[in-house]
Amino acid sequence: MDGLAERLPRALRQVPDRVLALKDLQVRDGAIVDENIDSGAPTTRTVNGLVDPLLQARTNQTQLLRLANISADIWYRLRLDGAPFSVIAEDANPVGRVWTARELILPPGKRYDVLVRWPRPGTYRLRTLRFSTGPSGDTYPERRLATVRVAGAPLADVPWPRSLGPLPRYQRDRVRRVRHLIFNENAAGTKFFINGRQFDSTRINEVVKLGSTEEWVIRNAAHEQHPFHIHVNDFQVISIDGKPYRARGLQDTVPLPVKGTVRIRMRFRNFLGPYVYHCHILAHEDAGMMGIVDVTRSGRRPSGRTLRALRAMREAMGMTAHSHHVLGRVPG
Predict the structure, then answer these.
(1) Residue 307 has pLDDT above 80, yes or no
(2) Which homologous superfamily is 170-317 in?
(3) Which residue would you say has higher pLDDT here, 247 or 34?
(4) Domain boundaries, the chain
(5) 99 Cβ partners below 8 Å, 6+ apart?
(6) Does the domain spanning 5-151 belong to CATH 1.10.10.60?
(7) How far is CA 179 from CA 67, 309, 312, in A?
(8) Residue 325 has pLDDT above 80, yes or no
(9) Distance between CA 216 and CA 237 in Å, rounded?
(10) Buried b / exposed e across 138-165, counting CB within 10 Å, b at 16+?
(11) Which pTM does this prediction carry?
């Protein structure tokens, strides 16, 4: 995330900055499986393409870790021995309130930027703990992801920030419209739906007026968690299962609890045009769990001529559920 270091106190702007990209792979008969992947089968977890890499740190030295789950399907429940996570950004958004966690849940597509430090020398582990996505989902065992070796004379304490910018307060906005989305799947787990429909690249599901704030109520009717993700326009979580959520900032990915409901708010201020929202489990979006939102100046559906042009563009791009990156355009 560019520009994050500039928001830190001057004493922290030169701290070690590490990207930890989390990804899994499955091996069968000596080759990596790249088709018909079973997300519940045994899998090898990697960090930056390596199995259990060794990281070095000075005692009491602040480090900036950029955590990203770039897996197609697998979730992570992260724990770092000897040091809690101090979250300074979520999904590339600097937080208005820095918060500390012993564990972080990362569904596919989720990112956190965190500050960590180990006050005592020793050898520590970054682990993903046992995690279940629900009765119809997958259960993952605990695995060691990386080893951290901390040594040397301790550095002096450096104060950490409490905020990296203004705290968004979307809950104070006037809401122009409330929309309801239901995420569901068939009993076999082979077809996935939003509001009872599978993805159609020629169909616009929601039309939004530029400049408005909307509230989306997203209900998960399935027996497994689904990570809701939207392109271009980040949101503030308002409540989870009816309980007010203390948002620390904006995000673009949020887990939907089994048989639960998440309420979010979005300001559609800066982009015109179509883009997508979907479950960030690749097999689920490819099997239908995705929709298109189109932001227009009027808030009305595009004319037939515009729709025909949109369809022609998608056909020319060969757009499928997997090639889903429809970009919004900046108002001119």
Answers:
(1) no
(2) Cupredoxins -  blue copper proteins (2.60.40.420)
(3) 247
(4) 5-151, 170-317
(5) 86, 87, 248
(6) no
(7) 32, 27, 28
(8) no
(9) 10
(10) bebeebebbebebeeeeeeeeebbeebe
(11) 0.90
